[in-house]
Amino acid sequence: MDSLAENSKKSFHIRSNSLPSKPHPVVDEVYENLCRLKASEATSSSSSLCKKLNGLQDLHDSIDKLLRLPLTHRALVDSKSVDDLLEGSLKILDVCALAKEALSQMKESADELGSALRRRRDDTVIDVQKYLNSRKMIKKAMHKVLKGMERSSSQKSDESFEIVSLLKEAEAVTYNSIEFLLSFIAGPKLPSKISRWSLVSKLMQPKRVTNKEDGAYGNEVEMVDASLYSITSHKSDVFVQVEDVQNSLRKLESCIHDLEEDLESLYRHLIKNRVSFLNILNH
Question: Which of 51, 264, 282, 56 is nearest to 173 (CA)?
């Protein structure tokens, strides 16, 4: 990790005349946080997502310090990419807000389903289908957002000021990390009943159930989906599966709680940095 950060800093000095020969400690701190995030696990498991969100909070805390430096002020005022940075920060806030809303909806649906399962009513399947209908709407919305994010992230720009390039790199890392979160919320696309049951079969394998770090199958969202699809597909008795579903729901609710807390904290960091950024430009 240290060698990665050192190589990045060396490359930074070779390319740039916009910084002093010896970088400010805050610049080093930003680079180190960026390197840690880039080296982190590229999966959409809940544990890796929480680590990413915590890492993003550290990154944007260091960016807050960077925005207070006079050299940053000079670079931003003279940069041709100020409008791009403003637009980028707004896009990130927008996708964060979408993720927050999706998590809130998931939590509400999980709470309602959990209450219905505890009552053990005869029409439990109706409540299960209600949850799955909500999931279908969330999945559709998230996949639509993800498709738009793919187009946006493919856009490149040239920037001569290295401080601004550093801010753009932080923006890209943040954007990509939130993309992982939206993928976690959405889960895989299920275009047909055949593929749906195929997913259920894979998820219900014992090895998959116990593998919490599996980024492709077996995370908390997909395990609940699979259990409920099993019920609505009449592949299992609803009352036999209730306890398993309740256990999966508890894990999902705990996961959502952790993600909501981390995302809310990141959101506050992003708003604070955008305000600082705007204050610089208005002076």
Answer: 56
Residue 194 has pLDDT above 50, yes or no: no
Q: Name the DSSP letter for residue 216.
A: S
pLDDT of residue 197: 47
The answer as to whether 271 is a domain residue is yes
State which residues form the domain around 169: 2-186+258-282
Question: For 224-240, b where at least 16 C-beta lie within 10 A, e where not — what string?
Answer: bbbbbbbbeeeeeebee
For the beta carbon of residue 278, count every other beta carbon within 10 angstroms.
12
Which H/E stretch holds residue 1? none
Residue 64: the pLDDT is 95
Q: Examine residue 153 and state whether it is found in any structural domain, yes or no.
A: yes
Helical H segments across 120-237, by residue range: 124-153, 162-186, 193-203, 206-210, 220-232
**Count of the separate structural domains present in the chain:** 1
DSSP-derived 3-state class of residue 213: coil
For residue 54, what are its two tokens?
């915590």
Q: Is the pLDDT of residue 148 over 70?
A: yes
Identify whether the C-beta of residue 86 lies closer than 8 Å to the C-beta of residue 282.
no
Q: How far apart are CA 146 and CA 140, in angstroms?
A: 10
Mean pLDDT of 177-206: 66
